[in-house]
Automatic annotation (TrEMBL):
This is ABC transporter ATP-binding protein. Keywords: ATP-binding, Nucleotide-binding. The keyword Magnesium does not apply. The keyword Flavoprotein does not apply. Transmembrane segments: none annotated. It comes from Blautia celeris. Residues 9-241 form the ABC transporter domain. One of its GO terms (molecular function) is ATP binding. It comes from the Bacteria.
Length: 322
């Protein structure tokens, strides 16, 4: 009897080199639990889209072991394809068809019986608040509504894993919030595993069960947003100056006091990563006052996911699995 894997996705030591010699993945490993929202974060060119193309069977890895829903990617690509759906940057909506026609067309691609397809369509239209748009032509929808419809289309086949490549890119805050609600609904009500990529850190923070930070084709950290924050296990001191150049000048002057990898400039602030908050707070305060360096404020700050992302993606020596 085949055992059900607790993991939706397992990738082990995946390498991928394109024909032009670019090494897009360099030994990437990650695990995605069934039913969770998993977010992949990485700078441009980190290899996120390459990984999605591999996991959705469009691209073969050079080497490494990948299983999706317990099925081996090399042996069972067809079976995997039947159980997943992928919403990419290019929408799969046909602008000449109505909303309902688009959904029914999708159901025919998956050979879903008509009555079942109609039931599923009505449920999805209701679940994702699309009813009010039924009377308008699809071509008139805003980008956010088109994206919502695209996701609904991809859910017609009841996929077990839904891949979303930057689902909220370029959206205004209202549309992004509607999209977050939609993703939570997909996880809560349908039990679908959601695998998404994003550049928005606050999105990863508020929405994800697990976040994986990628750099240069490899994971640098994977864990819950909370665990990632704990990973740094460092408080931060934030000193605010009147301008970025004032912050830069002060950091130069303080360079003898703190190790270079403990100091970072962010906008008009200087961030000090510290393991001894009292000692370093006193050192920084005394230095600033003694040298009459003008500053607007000094405070203790918990690192955000942003700070962790910057720290991990800037420091190539850091690696962590949480
Ligand atoms: N078809 C291709 N042929 C050759 N090189 C490619 C191809 N697709 C991607 N690359 C290169 O592989 C590396 C990883 O690209 P990928 O698109 O996977 O990164 P990404 O993290 O998705 O970036 P972005 O956030 O900008 O979409 C980059 O250096 C990119 O230029």
């Amino acid at each position: 009897m085949q055992q059900t894997s607790p993991y939706a996705i397992c990738a082990e030591q995946v390498y991928k080199q394109y024909k032009n010699g670019v090494q897009a993945l360099s030994g990437l490993s990650l695990t995605v639990k069934r039913g969770e929202i998993f977010t992949l974060l990485g700078q441009n060119g980190a290899g996120k889209s390459t990984l999605i193309r591999i996991l959705t069977t469009f691209l073969k890895p050079g080497s490494g072991k990948v299983s999706v829903l317990g099925l081996d990617l090399n042996r069972d690509a067809d079976r995997i394809r039947a159980k997943i759906a992928c919403v990419s940057q290019q929408t799969s909506i046909d602008m000449h068809l109505s909303l309902r026609e688009n959904m029914m067309f999708q159901s025919r691609l998956y050979r879903i019986p008509k009555a079942a397809a109609k039931k599923r369509m009505d449920m999805l239209i209701d679940a994702f608040d699309l009813t009010q748009y039924l009377k308008y032509p699809v071509s008139s929808y805003s980008g956010g509504i088109k994206r919502r419809l695209d996701i609904a289309l991809n859910l017609m086949s009841e996929p077990e894993v839904l891949f979303l490549d930057e689902p909220t890119v370029g959206m205004d805050i209202q549309s992004r919030m509607a999209m977050w609600k939609m993703m939570e609904k997909i996880r809560e009500e349908f039990g679908t595993t959601v695998f998404l990529t994003t550049h928005y850190l606050e999105e990863a923070d508020s929405l994800s069960d697990t976040v994986c930070i990628m750099k240069e084709g490899k994971e640098v950290a994977q864990g819950t947003p909370f665990a990632l924050r704990q990973y740094i296990r460092q408080d931060m001191i934030r000193i605010t100056f009147s301008s970025k150049s004032a912050a830069g000048d002060s950091v130069k002057r303080m360079s003898g006091l703190f190790l270079p990898d403990r100091i970072r400039i962010q906008d008009n602030c200087c961030l000090l990563f510290t393991e001894d908050i009292r000692r370093d707070m006193e050192t920084a305060n005394v230095f600033l006052l003694k040298n009459q360096i003008p500053f607007l404020g000094i405070e203790i700050k918990q690192p955000s996911l942003d700070d962790i992302f910057l720290k991990l993606t800037e420091d190539s020596k850091q690696e962590a699995c949480i």
